[in-house]
Amino acid sequence: MQGEGHTMEHDRQSDVGQAEGGRLAADRAVDAAGLVRYAAGSIVSRTLVDSAAGSVTLFAFDAGQGLSEHTVPFDAVVLLLDGRAELVIGGKELSVGAGELAIMPANVPHAVKSSGRFKMMLSMLKH
C-alpha cells in the first residue's frame, strides 16, 4: 500500500509505553493515538504486532493523504483513533470518525481518503 504520490514513513520516535527492544510493554495501557505522529505531507505508520496470525499497525495521515484502491487477501478491521476518514469498501463510501470501526472483507477492493488529518489502527486477520 502506498500513499497517493506522497511519502510513507515509519515512526521510530514514539516511545510512549515501550519496553526494552522497542516493543510495547505488556503491563500497562497506552494511548494508541499517541503512539504515532503526524508528519507534513506524509502517511506515518508504526507496526505494533506482526505475526503469522496477523498484524496491527497504526497510521497517521496528514490532510489530503490517502491510500488508493487495492485489495488484500485478509479481512481487516479499521479503528479510527483521531479525526474523520472516508473508506470506500466494495464501491460504497463510508464516513468513519474517532472511536468508530469498520470491517474491510478479504479480496474486496477498498480505499482510504480524507481532506483532514486522521489516525487509524489497522488490524489484518490472516486465515
Uncertain residue segments: 12-16
Q: Give the total of beta strands.
A: 9
Classify the secondary structure makeup into a structural class: mainly beta
Q: Give the helices and strands as they follow along the chain.
A: EEEEEEEEE
- What assembly state would you assign to the polypeptide chains in this entry? single chain
Specify the CATH homologous superfamily: Jelly Rolls
Number of domains: 1
Q: Architecture, CATH level 2?
A: Sandwich
Query: How many individual helices?
Result: 0
**According to CATH, what is the class?**
Mainly Beta
- Radius of gyration from the alpha-carbon trace, in angstroms: 14 Å
Helix content: under 10%
- Outline, from the CA principal axes? globular
Separation of the first and last Cα atoms: 20 Å
Q: In percent, how much strand structure appears in the residues? A: over 45%
- Overall mean confidence score, pLDDT: 87
